[in-house]
Design a protein that fits this description.
The structure is a single chain. It is elongated, with a radius of gyration of 45 Å. The chain has helices at residues 25-36, 42-49, 53-60, 83-93, 104-115, 123-138, 195-209, 238-247, 263-276, 286-300, 312-321, 401-409, 418-422, 425-433, 436-452, 455-467, 473-484, 510-517, 526-531, and strands spanning 9-14, 20-24, 153-165, 168-179, 184-190, 211-212, 215-218, 225-228, 234-236, 250-253, 282-283, 324-325, 335-340, 346-349, 352-355, 364-369, 373-377, 383-388, 396-397. Strands 3, 4, 5, 7, 10 and 11 form a six-stranded mixed β-sheet that branches. By secondary structure, the chain is an alpha+beta fold. The protein has five domains: 21-60, no CATH class; 80-138; 153-286 and 316-325, Ribonuclease H-like superfamily/Ribonuclease H (Nucleotidyltransferase, domain 5), CATH 3.30.420.10; 335-398, SH3 type barrels (Roll); 402-484, no CATH class. α2 packs across α3 (53-60), α5 (104-115) crosses α6 (123-138) and α12 runs antiparallel to α15 (436-452). β14 and β15 form a beta hairpin.
Amino acid sequence: MPAPQQSTTLLVSKAKGGNERMLRMEQVKDIKYLRERKGLSYRAIIKETGHAFETVKKYADQDDFNIEPKPRKRRKSKLEPYLEIIKAWLEQDLQTPRKQRHTAQRIYDRLKEIFGEKFAVSDRAVRSKVANLRKEMNNKNDGYLPLEHPPGEAQADFGEAVFVENGKRYQGHYLTLSFPYSNVGYTQLTKGENQECLLTGLKDIFEYLQLVPDTIWFDNLSPAVKKIKKYGMRDKTQGFARFELHYGFKSNFCNPASGHEKGSVENKIGYHRRNFLVPVPQFGDMKAYNKELFKKADQDMKRLHYQKKILISELFQQDKKAMHQLPKRALEVFKLEKARVDHYGKVAFDSHLYSTSPNYAGKQVWIKATADQLFVLDEGYRQIQDHPRLYGKQKESMKWIPYLELMSKRPTALKYTSFFQKLPQTLQNYFESCQYQEKKAALTLLTRMIAHSDITTAQQAFEMTIKRGLTDLDSIWTTYYQMTVPVRPLPDIMLGNHIPEIKPYEIDTTSYDTLMKGDTHAVINPKALQNT
């Protein structure tokens, strides 16, 4: 079965009236066939095919079908004489504030002012050309320069990773510090990308190495850079500037949208995600897990460098030689800011709520936030309360002891608190059945339990005792004591060889037997009576 003929349009001819029309290869082939095989004249072919005379004449005797593309003649624009002026104005705009740059309308108006009637171009044409020129300038790519990184130089950036701590899932981050010269990299998990997480991660890596890189390259991270200025200058955040000064490293920042300038850390972020963080890490304590990540990084450098074919661990020794020692005293990394306590004794920080105490309602306090902890301080910087720092969808951290102390003085208010609503139904029923003084005593006991352990254990002690049919506070405290104080088994007492052997004591009842028989002449042993 012959293959079906292609119908791709390839050739152009002019029909009657000078109009161009497209011919398919089959149509040209038909013309050639009628001319060469059938021997028909031009007129006969025209009658047979219906094509114009010029078309038939062109293809009937054509024997060269090579395609010779011809450059398209560009129509000269009326704006051509003014393009250099427009480009100069747009380039000057790059050095001026955005609100003082030329609009397309302003460019049109200026050209009209300068050239008057000679400038016969519509404002629409100017707007279109200015838009195209700006697009070309924004997409201008000067190419990448191969950057050489000497020993002792590092790059830092964040990656994203999911992990589970104490059963709680976090959409978290990890900070990676890579050394391009040796291809070594260290990673630390963090719950955020704030300044405290950045600086704490760097500090922990410095302290593990007992060294500080000479120079560190960063992206324009908001925890480090407050504002990008002209000529590559940066306004650094106060916390980052203090950290840099304390540890004595030099910071370099990549140009905007130029991630290739820190390609080492970009690659290392992906490498660590695939090799260190798969499957999803699950652990009880993030600090302990981060120490394990240090060990993994050390183990990873026992391989050849991908280009230099030398052990990475050997190259890293050269990195270390170019680094400098830690300062004598570590820098405490934290953020300190003022806040006002609301009417419920809670304070807001980074869109999260933290409890303080009802006694501080309406007062100003200090918030001291580290990467993983938050401390509420009074105006004299004395600690009022501490909390784990919240991230992501966590909304509120509540510590109830200060509130329970107040409720124990006002027990009738207990029923109307959110704390009461969160109690198990067993405890709600118990407190509702208590008289005024009993409720005060029970709240005082509950506060004591929570201060000693936690609210969950205290609730369980109440529930277990109530389910056994006991409601007195002594029984509840006994249950709690058994739950929280481990019973220590008493060791066996081992007797030494110096203990004399004691014969078993035997009772002599013969004297009593004699008396009971009435034998008046019997001799009674007084010692036997005394022994019995």
